[in-house]
Design brief:
The structure holds 2 protein chains of 2 kinds. By secondary structure, chain A is of the alpha+beta class. Chain A is 23% helix and 34% strand. In chain B, helix 4 (76-117) crosses helix 11 (228-244), helix 8 packs antiparallel against helix 11 (228-244) and helix 11 runs antiparallel to helix 14 (274-299). Classes of the chains: A alpha+beta, B mainly alpha.
Amino acid sequence: MNTDDLVLENVTKRFGSVTAVDDLSVTVPQGSFFALLGASGCGKTTTLRMVAGLEELTEGTIRLGDKDITELRPYRRPVNTVFQSYALFPHLNIEDNVAFGLRQRGVRNTATKVAEMLELVQLPGFAKRKPAQLSGGQQQRIALARALVNEPQVLLLDEPLGALDLKLRRQMQIELKRIQTEVGITFLHVTHDQEEAMWMADTVAVMNDGRIEQLGAPTEIYEFPASPFVSNFLGQSNLFAAEVSGTNGADLLLTSHGERFAAPSARAHSTDGRVWLGVRPEKVRLALPGEDTPATHNQVHGVLTDTCYAGVSTEYLLRTPWGQEMSVFSANAAAGEPLSPGTEVVAHWYPPHSFVLDRRLGEGDEIAQYSADPLGVAP
Amino acid sequence: MTAIVGAAAGPGPTAAAEPPPPGLRRRRWVPYLLLLPGGLWLLLFFVVPTVQLAGTSLYDRSGSLELGYTQTFAVGNYIDAITAYWPHLVRSALYSGIATIICVVLGYPLAYAIALKAGRWRNLMLVCVIAPFFTTFLVRTLAWKSILSDSGPVVGFFRAIPFVPDDFRLLATPAAVVCGLVYNFLPFMVLPLYASLERLDGRLLEAAGDLYARPATAFRRVTLPLSMPGLIAGTLLTFIPAAGDYINAELLGTPNEYMIGNVIDSAFLVRLDYPQAAALSFLLMATILVMVFSYVRAAGTDEVV
């Protein structure tokens, strides 16, 4: 283990009877860009605030390298935060804002360091302005500079791009990634934006209900989600309630609504009994009945109920024989008109694109709603 | 008034075609109309009396109310007033200055607690701050007379302490006058301070802590500068009326504690020396203006957001 990893062990936070963070353990490797991803109220911001020292732990410990920082007051922790609201001091100019932390630690000759930082965030020449004279994006960069100038061991970012418009956000995402590579400091980034998390982070932890549902590299989480929640929080998934009926070599054989499917055992989080068979909409291709499809592909017959032309791709909704909605994204690479609603089609996909998840007793009857609900919050 | 509104509101076929549109022309008048009642009031009851008072302060003092006064531009009235009553002027500045400082010391923590720590008790505590206003100024000050009296509990407490002389007293001392001033003007300090502290964004304090500032430093570098507008407003609202006050010195002090307000009061109503009373009023005004301006400059309002 590296000496400067950030380690959270069995961290729990309760507000009265509400458990915001529930027995969470995670290691953030030194120098990584680590994203905590989740919907609002999942405990991600509370986790970040506990690392910053702004919230006391109910149980558990937080260590930074060999040092236990659980009980340290915020001003004694070698971490700095970029706040969601930026929290720039309105009565101080940009230079004094950025130099605030340095001066507290008795650093002399702050001017050079501040100028370097303003250069890094591409706002040189702003030193004498007041925060109110800056745009949201500029304030965001200053907030970043004010935290980074202290060279913290961990930089905490609390939805730092939440208040920016889409275009500025994309720009800042690239910028943040560049800065992180340049300074090599551990970034712990809290966000509810799955694209932002996947785009920037080396490691993403998907949080739900105060716990981490899945942790891994963005491709790993997206391609092989570990739970129905993750499969629908990060992008969309089609999930079919199925039972494992046997194996064929390295493949798992599944039955769903009377149809037979195959999936590699290596892509299964559960290999017997009740399972969910999942596939991402963009992995599915459409064929007209009678057209040739590869014999090994999994197939679902259906009728198109909706066609959404979105420029780069066309998003189809089709109804399966058992009444479930299934979505299919088809890249607009080929010539020709999109298929129109009412067309009978065969949806098919390469079995290794499937993934298999554990399904609890009683789950599955309501699947029709489940798949149509991108956040997976329907009962 | 009705004619203007009626003409503007009626978009007749001819009116609509004419530049400039009547709606715009009417809007330009609105600020002046809004200023009119207050402006007239100030003109009638502030500007005119001030000019008249300035005139009175330069009358020949040998005149009287019955015989009438002659305007001789007697600047000597001011010199006479200063020579005779400069101790009272100094005393006014001193007492009200001390009272203002005590008000800051008592009021800042109080306003801070109400704004940031009181939670659901906040409104109740605010009512408590204002509650004394439900009784008249005079009665409240009279109540202090019995609180500080020689047979009262406060003096009794002090006399019980060893080494405090048995003839220790509070009533009829400068301390009593300052106590009265503090009590009567404390709400004027607390309310503006509360208003500016209540607007303080708690996240700024979290940010200061995150940037290695201890709570005391965070207070000095963030809370205090951001509450400066409230502190300046509170000090002015306390110091200015306290400097002109005469009830507290009258009821809680002796002629030895009389402030300039008492002198003006007696010159106008007892001695009927109108020119000198007017000259003293102007001297008080000038003293306050000089002190306030130097204070505001020192507090550096341009640094205040």
